[in-house]
Amino acid sequence: MKALYIASTGMAAQERNVEVISNNIANMRTTGFKRQRAEFQDLLYQSYRRAGSATSDAGTQVPVGIEIGSGVKVAATARVMTQGSVTPTERELDVAIRGEGFLTVALPDGRIAYTRDGTLERDATGQLVTVDGFQIEPGIIIPGDATAVSISRDGIIEAFIAGNAAPVQLGQLQMARFTNKGGLEAIGDNLFVETAASGQAQIGVPDADGMGNLLQGYLEAANVNAVTEMADLIAAQRAYEMNARIISGADQMLQATSNLR
């Protein structure tokens, strides 16, 4: 019976849906994380009676045909790029992005990655890096004797250095935005890389040309809503159970048929 195979596609799709939801819940405390949503599509249809086909020599036509679908599939796991809430950290190198844009990061293999995680650190040379030691682009070095580092909303980094009465400008953070930011590829470590679907990065500075601004001493939290995720999880579980019952029902029908004398 086709019902067995149709219901099996429903179970497989809901299994993927639960995996997406579980990843969202697991990353509720991940800085700058953007939740995903499973999107479904129906599969091919088998037509037993085509709508519009002739039913008589007088030209009458079938108003509604007979089509039986083959089930469902997960077409995409779209990433929801809405703004997460900002939370204070009291660390002078932490920055939260409010609005559009990503910080640019230089990877060891020469590629440029992009992140919403503004947890910044200084390495042994004073270079501004991510928590994994990847250099922030453009490179900014904070001297070892620098104190009271400040980061303005437009990304300008200043610090008081011994022997200078006035703060010294050390550089300016740059940001990137994309035509289709949902098309970015997540590579882990809170990093994304561009793809053909995302389009090329449009580089600029914070608080200009459509870019968001920066808030020092804060971080952007994940945009995961625990209540919504739990509701989606319950719905996915019930859909999985209903598909399982269809398989059980179809099996009972086949058993009844095989028991006919």
Automatic annotation (TrEMBL):
List the InterPro entries hit by this protein, alphabetically.
Flag_bb_rod_N, Flagellar_basal_body_rod_CS, Flagellar_FlgE/F/G, Flg_bb/hook_C_dom, FlgE/F/G-like, FlgG_G_neg, LlgE_F_G-like_D1
A GO cellular-component term linked to this record: bacterial-type flagellum basal body, distal rod
Locate the Flagellar hook protein FlgE/F/G-like D1 domain: which residues?
96-159
- Where does it live in the cell? Bacterial flagellum basal body
Keywords, alphabetical: Bacterial flagellum, Cell projection, Cilium, Flagellum
GO biological process, alphabetically ordered:
bacterial-type flagellum-dependent swarming motility
Ranges where the Flagellar basal-body/hook protein C-terminal domain occurs: 216-260
- Please give the superkingdom of this protein's source: Bacteria
Q: Which Pfam families match?
A: Flg_bb_rod, Flg_bbr_C, LlgE_F_G_D1
User: Which residue range or ranges hold the Flagellar basal body rod protein N-terminal domain?
Assistant: 4-34
Query: What NCBIfam families does the database record attribute to this sequence?
Result: FlgEFG_subfam (TIGR03506), flgG_G_neg (TIGR02488)
Q: Please report which protein family the annotation says this sequence is part of.
A: Belongs to the flagella basal body rod proteins family.
PANTHER family given in the database record: FLAGELLAR BASAL-BODY ROD PROTEIN FLGG, FLAGELLAR PROTEIN
This one is known as Flagellar basal-body rod protein FlgG
